[in-house]
Design goal:
Four copies of one chain form a homotetramer. The first copy, chain A, is an alpha+beta fold and 366 residues long. Chain A has seven helices and 18 strands. In chain A, the strands form six sheets. Chain A has a five-stranded antiparallel beta sheet, covered by helices on one side. In chain A, strands 9-8-10-16-11 form a five-stranded antiparallel beta sheet. In chain A, strands 5-6 form a two-stranded antiparallel ribbon. In chain A, strand 14 (283-284) and strand 15 (287-288) form a beta hairpin. Chain A is globular and about 70 Å long. The two termini of chain A are 42 Å apart. Chains in contact: A-B, A-C, A-D, B-C, B-D, C-D. At the A-B interface, strand 1, helix 2, helix 5, strand 11 and helix 6 of A face strand 1, helix 2, helix 5, strand 11 and helix 6 of B.
């Protein structure tokens, strides 16, 4: 029952602070024989890496991952894989002035109230920098999934920035890699560029909604009642910094539907059951249906903004604060690869869990 | 790593099917010396009990809880508490005709695909009847919380039925117990009664949004990174049958805010920090701030409706189905006490976890 | 992290006290499709049942198991199996006089010191009666093992009573079921009968050593470093009431050997590796070799004896006590089926764990 | 459920191989505010360090620990502590010739059979080098214990080498640090020096028994039924490489006692209950009594010896092997600090667990 771990059989424990010597992920339970090297993991870290364009923090970390254990001659051995990322650009001086002040919207005050001590440099353990460890673990999970369920494809993208949503009729998978927002709607990408540039210049920030889809997931994954696939996905996504809401399929909008409208009718296709729609987001009773798994989560606006906000000090005095560090005007952007990584970890974990309890799928249809 | 358990130290394992001999909750880790008897737990089960009015299923289960262990002379002993509810009105014949057909929107097909066997009577393990076990465990959790944090108050209520939301300006705590929908908006209650009656008569159903608030929760509860208070709440609520979305504080709407609008500014009150607002829903960095903990979740419309829907059989033949059983037109109503129970379990669990790792709060302010 | 649970994927949570309404085991993670009924479990409970001969406690519990969930039409469904045993012969009056006195060697004093409350009737939760729940769970585990590794055979037997050890040259598997001590040495059985009868008449008791062997376990089970097969077996056996030592293979005697004497040399047999000896007890590096898994554990003498012993009361006054209840002169006898049950649970758990992480064995030899 | 983790609330995950870049321990759940630095942990690593005298392996690792996270300005922050030890003297060439042969008594063959891949260099993950990570974690645990139960003292020592046991009448705590065997019997130390020197020269090895005592542990630690203090200690010790048996108090010898002889009678002392003896090893019903916690474990002789032994290759051919590496003639010696570390981790874990569930001790006596 590690508080910094997630997963049942594929179990990831992340460690490290924003401005300590290093951070990383201790990954236990990875199947043996997965072909992996540092470059394959680095690929995903580079996607999350800060400083790539003007829309993400200018902190320039190379975020170079090192595999310290669990891999031998290019393959996982089945023993724990240690993925370490050393912190190189720590510029701690930026944070000295917030040593005694609590930044509104940050975890400064709650860490203090809980622990009575906090590494205030860059948010310490509560920094979004922790998500680099998740992306590294997710990179490994993706390769392991290939071994067991090679058809699985996991893709994340932004569907909303501030109040501006994409137009689903513009949805184009090939656009996702073509713009700095990982959005499938090229028109939205242009619009957001202007919108965010303005916010950035004014020292303000904005929230976003990210959607992550897993295609090709076999039916039967998930385990009632408290290890449901959607339960684990909700936990995985909500654990990402700044996330305030998680939806599966129709999500909150399911409340507005009637039972008639919401029913995904079932037909018989060539390779098994087919559905008239996917309101369920690919999960019924916590178990995958074989349809696309669809998860969405809302990321709140970065709390580090250039506007003066009222706050208090450790000694309880009222004061004001401006957060000057190097920050993202829309952290939702960099949450895309993080959401993908969490999806990969959850899917792999459930592939292993299912194989453990059941062996292979038992319930054939037709 | 039980798949049917939740909680870290206060650990609840539920068991049982809709139409088996009994169902219940095995509760481990409860503090000793909590005064409890069956009537105190029954109180909450009665709130969830079906057949109370025309808006809930007409299945008439007495849902009588028995304490089989862990309580001695009116107090918990610190050993596992077994809470059993016998099934008495099992009328299995209602379900015989769905033995081979998969009801759309239900877990029939996924249970079959996963396990190759399913107790089809009333949905078996995937029936919402499982939530009675949670309510029983939550009743115990409430009493244990009193011992440690006596100011905690947990209240759930409906804030939306179908597309009809409450008017927050009508919010009145005292109204919640006065209407069959557990809503704080008396006007909405009247409106919903008419609306739902119509749906019910037409054999249709509708979704809902439930909000659960915990007041008086001390600052400092929660444990980064994967046992965050909001992570555990998201998992707890998403694990409830038919839930498709979970929100903390602003929830999905946080995406629309700017950093300036979203910042909950901090002041110094008489008893500690005060905030200008509660966009965060009482949680920063996964740890409670001392403000109200605010969680919302969306419940999809009951999939059991009287409209004919297309589906397939176990042997893969296409067919149609009408679900005739005794069902709720809006299961969201009975989800209110379930959401409260999950909140109670999570809060108690984190009170224990916090006490375990930290002892007492260390970070004084002022 | 339930304190009353064991197992990773096949997870057993026991609950209940000696003199409450019932006790049982909540079993999560059982594979689906295992053929099981109450009689098959009852078979093992009857083996452990008290009152069968003059060498075991005269408490006459029918120990009748009921399956309350997780089984449908004679097969497990993959959901939690609740195994309940109602307490019928509770004769609580026997224990009234020990309400305030702590019996030496019993958990009375420590339960009181920990919890500040204890169900003193028959030892409450600390009664050896709890092991009935384990035997029930073990009965289910045995059937599930057949599905995955049909060659596995689990057999327990006594190898020592007090200072009297069996003569290994008399070892005869067929004798085990022929005497009240489950010993493979018919001569020892006769000797022990006289010895124990005398002890029983004098109101004294004696310890024992039980050995449990699992034959036909495939190579490759176990998971370093802290879920090693021997680690889990040590925990499983040490958790049994009154057990004070656990050995694998050579056990404590391994200390006396030289490396030369201890080496199990390896040869190539027709069906894979063969060994010149089995000092290792079938486990190397925490992983099964395919040889017999051999575990031994020492059970201390029953602490409930008719001799007057010095003790204190809850209020700290010195006093004396005689434990009059109905007790076993050698609880080691009834520990045999309990040890078998724990072996079965551990083996099944590791079969599932292995299948989860690895799929099927990967490392062929030859 | 990490397979490479132990502990409930104070949770240690070890990672790394003998000849990879590094190994270490990811420690989650440590209380905040524990004063710690690398030197304090190094103290214990130095005790275990190889190459200190002719009785331990001549591999010369500096075994220098680095704290990579979780400590800020000399105190733990309550977030994960990463303790890393880089491998510097890897001399892999020593192991090239065993790439395809399985060393008898080692985990070579079982790792291969399980995973189908193994890092054969120095035993990879199954090397006793892994225990350095435990010692590092134990060093941290010792400091954390001081914060909660400052009277706890944990001391390990050898009580048997091969067939030669110490004379308990020579027991002198102050001798333990005075000889290379950590034994309290100075006479035994002299005897063992001669004995082991001879074995070493002949290329042979021998087993040992290590005893670890925790003094000053408060009554009430431990949690029935499967998180008993003795259960967790048995698992902790059995998980150490080469351990084949674990005993609590009387251990296996308890089998030989009568109930009369085994009863630890209870008296009332000035500070609470006192006992006439400690056959129980400080634990009753899985819960500490306040007496010394006494654990013993047997370490088998090193399997790496200079005698030729028969074995097979990966392709199933019969062959012979001599293990030439740099090895300990009696690994039991270096197991002493490892056993202490495991004791420290278990005691701390149970201090936190107890505080979590109970708060403070509830059951006063007198």
């Amino acid at each position: 029952m590690s508080m910094n771990s997630f997963g049942h059989l594929f179990r990831v424990t992340t460690w490290g602070e924003s401005h300590g010597p290093a951070l990383g992920a201790t990954v236990d339970g990875c199947p043996p024989g997965v072909e992996i090297d540092e470059a394959m993991i680095q690929h995903w870290l580079d996607k999350r890496k800060p400083g790539q364009n003007k829309f993400t923090t200018q902190r320039r970390e190379p975020d170079q991952v090192k595999i310290l254990s669990g891999v031998f001659e290019g393959q996982t051995t089945g023993t724990p894989v240690q993925l370490m990322i050393e912190n190189t650009d720590q510029r701690s001086k930026d944070y000295g002035d917030i040593m005694d002040k609590f930044r509104p919207g940050h975890a400064d005050i709650t860490y203090w109230q809980k622990y009575g001590i906090r590494d205030y440099r860059g948010g310490g353990r509560s920094s979004a920098r922790e998500t680099a460890s998740r992306v590294a673990a997710g990179g490994l999970a993706r390769e392991a999934i290939k071994q067991i369920a090679p058809n699985v494809q996991i893709t994340g993208y932004m569907v909303q920035m501030g109040p501006r949503r994409i137009d689903r009729s513009n949805f184009d998978w090939s656009q996702i890699e073509q713009n700095p927002f990982w959005t499938p709607d090229a028109t939205a990408a242009e619009d957001w560029a202007t919108y965010l540039d303005e916010l950035r210049k004014s020292g303000n920030s904005v929230g976003a909604v990210v959607e992550v889809v897993a295609r090709g997931v076999p039916a039967g994954l998930g385990a009632p009642i408290y290890a449901k696939l959607d339960t684990d996905l909700a936990a995985a996504m909500m654990s990402i910094n700044a996330v305030k809401g998680v939806e599966i399929g129709e999500g909150m909008a399911a409340a507005e539907l009637t039972g008639e409208a919401n029913a995904d009718e079932i037909f018989m296709g060539q390779d098994g059951p087919q559905y008239s729609s996917n309101h369920a987001g690919g999960i019924l009773g916590g178990i995958s249906t074989g349809q696309d798994i669809v998860v969405r989560f809302a990321v709140k606006p970065t709390s580090s903004i250039l506007t003066t906000r009222k706050t208090i000090t450790k000694s309880g005095e009222e004061t004001e604060i401006i957060t000057k560090g190097r920050h993202d005007p829309c952290v939702g952007i960099r949450a895309v690869p993080v959401g993908e990584a969490m999806m990969a970890c959850v899917i792999l974990d459930h592939l292993l869990l299912h194989r453990g309890q059941i062996g292979e799928n038992r319930g054939r249809i037709g």
